[in-house]
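Q: Could you fold this chain for me?
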Amino acid sequence: MENPRETLSGHPARWWHKLPDGRIQCDLCPRDCKLHDGQRAACFVRANQGGEMVLTTYGRSSGFCIDPIEKKPLNHFYPGSSILSFGTAGCNLACKFCQNWDISKSREMDTLMDSASPTDIARAAKRYGAQSVAFTYNDPVIFAEYAMDTADACHDLGIKTVAVTAGYMYLPAAREFYAKLDAANIDLKAFTDEFYFKLCAGHLQPVLDLISMVHHETDCWIELTTLLIPGKNDSATEIKALADWCHKELGPDVPLHFSAFHPDYKLLDAPATPPATLTQAREIAMQAGLRYVYTGNVHNRAGDATLCPGCGQAVIERDWYEILNYRLDDFGKCQHCGTAISGRFGHFDKSFGARCIPVHLGK
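A: Sure. Below is the predicted structure, expressed as structure tokens.
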């Protein structure tokens, strides 16, 4: 937490309460930050300003880009569509292996170059033909008020909304947050509390509780991602335990993505993930009964393919973010046998492809 008596400005925040000693406590996530006047929370962007909680990054972004939806990654949410992506700065976890650390760990508010209101963002998505808007790059949990207002503006224009998040959030706040979302990719970083505590400064159970709540209590479509780090969370025993939990708690149809790690930030001594590790993880998860398991951050067309659980045919073939073949009807049913594929689907014309188009929304 940052120094007291700092000069702050920000948007009124939600999910906090006053303490008897004059401090305020943030109720957004399990870090339970207790703040004196002028002090910032561990996420750096939520702060005590005159005895009130404010969000200092409301309306400010680290940049906007038009991406393929598969990059989030979401393979069962309007495949082939484009999505307007943006983030802010800061994070409420402290992952030593963060792949976006220059944004999520930023303490320089000057990195937030683009100013944009929720309405500006929704209109930009419409203008660029993006079917959805993604809250990503850093964790949208910490800018939930901005994301939720943007979701409302997007829905007014028929634009869907997506969160890419670690899911480290208290359930009361999460119920309000996910009610505004159409889809989310949630990081299930490992399946041991030791990993979360030592490498992320967090705990596993709140993430499991949140994933279960979103799946069972909301209409938000979810997919999960686990970044496999050699020697940290990639044992066959742990992968099987993770897959068994997913099957028991969520059923067989929630997609699970295993992604390759590359040395970054404060975890430079761990090797990159061998492709064989991802392939083995995928096989373990499918043997556990999960129907849609993918590999990411490696070139593996077999691991990119969506297989029909009815006939076994590849109904969507991908090469990285490019869709090579699409064999579903407009209702998401297999064109070979008519089996419905779990997810959110519509008319497929052509794939947006692997493009990344930076856009500027600032005044």
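A (continued): The chain has nine helices and 20 strands.
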